Amino acid sequence: MAPSCWWAASASSKNPAAARGRRVAVLKPAQTGLAPGEPGDAAEVARLAGDHVTAVELARFPEPLAPATAARRAGLAPVRPHEVAEAAQKLATEHDLVLVEGAGGLLVRFDDQGATLADAARLLSAPVLVVAPAGLGTLNATALTAQALGARGLECLGVVVGSMPERPDLASRCNIEDLPVAAGAPLLGAVPAGAGALPGADFAARAGSWLAPRLGGSWVVPVL
């Protein structure tokens, strides 16, 4: 699984921001693989974070494919990078922090002209947080993502492990040390596997323990 990317579209740098009284918005530019009415990533954010977070979805395509492919096959207009930037900037006028979630990886295409998530991030001039898998294959994929960011003049804020096993295998344990080297950026947290299945109140109460102080939490790199 390739690393996914989030980037901040406002100047605030602390998170979990909602717990600190900040107004937070999460923007999902392209949701694929779901029919109209089905809860998507934006709805899941709202469930986990509660009323303190504004969750927005720009477009939805029913097949579980890259956004450009899913839009083309559905006969729907694709999402353009400038639309993502405009939506994020509008949210930033009413929120202290805007987080934009990618779909499938930094260089996944939004449209048939080759526009990508990286183009939207560049329009926003915002730092990018890479969310990486824990196990085998993550070092190469994370390094390639970091190189692509650097080639486009984008800042890699850091890496968060998106699903850390309760009993990590040898590769996952070694990757805790090696991921910052691959990314050229600090490891800023590790979210436990299955955390998304928690009730919203439990997730919100525990989220700070999964994120490093730079993201407003208390997590420290473990000795595994």
Notes on the protein architecture:
With 224 residues, the chain is α/β, with parallel strands linked by helices. Helices cover 32% and strands 21% of the residues. Strands 3-2-4-1-5-6-7 form a seven-stranded mixed sheet, with helices on both faces. Helix 3 packs parallel to helix 4 (117-124) and helix 5 runs parallel beside helix 6 (170-183).
Which properties best describe this structure?
224 residues, 7 helices, globular, seven-stranded mixed beta sheet
Strand order of the largest sheet: 3-2-4-1-5-6-7
Percentage of residues assigned to helices: 25-40%
Proportion of residues in extended strands: 15-25%
Largest sheet: 7 strands, mixed
Assembly state of the chains shown = single chain
Note the gap between the termini: 23 Å
> Which consecutive residue ranges, at least 5 long each, have pLDDT under 50?
10-15
Report the C-alpha radius of gyration, rounded.
17 Å
Helix tally equals 7
Secondary-structure element string: EEHEHHEHEHEHEH
| Global shape | globular
Overall mean pLDDT stands at 90
Category from helices, strands and their pairing: alpha/beta
The total of beta strands comes to 7
Short synopsis of the structure:
The chain is of the alpha/beta class and 224 residues long. The protein is built from 7 helices and 7 strands.
SSE order and pairing:
Elements: E1 4-8, E2 24-32, H1 41-49, E3 53-61, H2 67-74, H3 81-92, E4 97-101, H4 117-124, E5 128-132, H5 138-151, E6 156-164, H6 170-183, E7 187-192, H7 200-206
